[in-house]
Design brief:
By secondary structure, the chain is α/β, with parallel strands linked by helices. 32% of the residues lie in helices and 21% in strands. Strand 1 and strand 2 form a beta hairpin.
Length: 471
């Protein structure tokens, strides 16, 4: 099938697609702050309807809207996940361009959410439009699920998938995590690590005190640091009692996949401005650890006086936030239990462990229909064989969305960013050429998903409904 007409459509509408993305990126949808979330959800729903997707908006309790949509028809259905919320911007002084200005400089669009993940969502919508304008009706049914709580751990989405599993039956799922590495090779992932996000708290006096009392009043900051020091070794190995005994061995198939992955170690170190990797790892050991190694990361510590100017103070509280990235056979529930028991045995019963969010891991086959459609299309569009990760080092609600299908839907994940996009950090940006090339890539994925023989998913069809549902 020739994609000349499709590619020409994308090229002719390149400015329009970029302007739509700029408009969406100018909406400050930071889930942690709650500002502009409903307006952004409405804008996303209108953009979906504009390209012919029938939509329904769900509100789960007090959560942010979840936009569900369907388009296309036929016996094969596939899920497309996206989110319209973005991470907090951090310090404005770290940004060269306003985080919600969506300015374009030297062919790069700078904005919070450009890389993670409004750009990915717009690329998928643009591909649906371009395909239908070029070839007519989609050859498969796409079921879109777009949420606004990715940065909060997706609590509404978990309830939605439990209550509306019938809407999520599919043969596979396309996720929005991926990039082009330092050698411009597209990276495709077939699964994701799980995660559990925790807060540890230590308490002292009823309020901050003059530090002269440090001789006789317990210091919760030291208490917390001492507890944290038992969780990992100086070399970064997780030392929680019983933790390592629950790690499943890496299978031979996965080892074979790892051997095909080439990590640009020197390029990444230059990009990150670091001298070496943890434990001075390199080569195959580094790749294996990156993809199949569990993590315990201190994401932030807060205690005492951290503002400008000196202040000799004995803190009343100390808090640390940790995330654990989970690999087979770790679960969020298991990790929380092991951590609690580990602290108790060492006399740290007073340290509170507060669960902030979690997600199970998800892992699927390299021979699934979505995996083959993604890898073959990537080679065609980018001219380079993609780097295929059997499991992405990042995490998300993949298990909840894909697990709603019976049997569980395999996943293939890819995105529009590149190694220097800096998602979650200052000056987050994408290259507009990558954005347009991704639209062409997704168009070919759509075509390949409609080809060949596969099991029936029940002849799903577009609903064409536009309604609000509140739970």
């Amino acid at each position: 099938m020739s994609f000349v007409r499709f590619d020409r459509y994308v090229d002719r509408h390149a400015q329009s697609f970029a302007e739509r993305l700029q408009m969406l990126c100018r909406m400050p949808s930071v889930a942690a702050r709650g500002t502009g979330m409903r307006a952004t959800a409405e804008a996303v729903e209108q953009m979906m309807q504009r390209v012919g997707i029938g939509t329904r908006s769900f509100r789960i309790g007090n959560g942010y809207p979840i936009i569900y949509g369907e388009c296309g028809s036929g016996p094969h259905a596939f899920l497309i996940y996206g989110h319209y919320d973005v991470q907090p911007v951090g310090h404005l002084t770290d940004w060269s361009v306003g985080p919600f200005a969506a300015g374009i400089i030297d062919g790069k669009l700078y904005a919070r959410g450009a890389a993670n993940s409004k750009g990915d969502l717009l690329a998928r919508l643009a591909a649906v439009e371009a395909y239908q304008k070029s070839f007519g009706k989609l050859p498969v049914c796409f079921r879109f699920i777009v949420e606004g709580e990715d940065g909060l751990g997706s609590p509404s989405l978990y309830r939605f998938t439990a209550e509306h599993a019938d809407l999520l039956q599919a043969e596979g799922c396309l996720w929005d995590e991926g990039y082009r590495d330092t050698k411009e090779r597209p990276v495709i992932s077939l699964g994701f690590k799980g995660i559990t996000f925790l807060e540890l708290r230590a308490h002292g006096a009823r309020s901050d005190l003059h530090s002269k009392w440090g001789t006789i009043v317990p210091n919760p900051a030291w208490r917390l640091v001492q507890a944290l020091s038992t969780i990992t070794s100086p070399k970064g190995v997780i030392t929680i009692d019983g933790f390592s005994s629950h790690l499943a061995p890496v299978t031979e198939d996965d080892m074979k996949a790892l051997r095909a992955i080439e990590l640009d170690e020197a390029g990444l170190k230059r990009e990150f401005r670091i001298a070496s990797w943890v434990r001075s790892m390199k080569g195959e050991a580094l790749i294996k650890e990156h993809i199949f190694g569990p993590t315990c990361t201190i994401c932030g510590i807060q205690t005492g006086h951290t503002e400008a100017g000196p202040k000799t103070v004995l803190p009343s509280t100390a808090m640390a936030r940790l995330d654990f990235r989970l690999v087979p056979d770790l679960t969020p529930e298991l990790v929380v239990r092991l951590l609690r028991e580990h602290l108790n045995v060492r006399g740290f019963r007073d340290i509170e462990v507060i669960e902030l969010g979690s997600a199970p891991l998800a892992k699927s086959s390299a021979t699934s229909r979505v995996a083959l459609a993604a890898t073959e299309s990537a080679l065609e569009v980018y001219g380079l064989p993609p780097i295929v990760y059997p499991m992405d080092p990042s995490s998300g609600p993949v298990g909840a969305v894909c697990g709603a299908s019976k049997p569980s839907a395999p996943v293939a994940s890819f995105g529009i960013s590149y190694a220097g996009s800096n998602p979650h950090g200052p000056d987050e940006h994408i290259r507009l050429d990558d954005f347009l090339q991704s639209i062409k890539f997704i168009g070919r994925v759509i075509h390949r998903l409609g080809e060949g023989k596969t099991r029936s998913s029940g002849g799903a069809r577009t609903s064409g409904i536009h309604e609000k549902v509140t739970h």
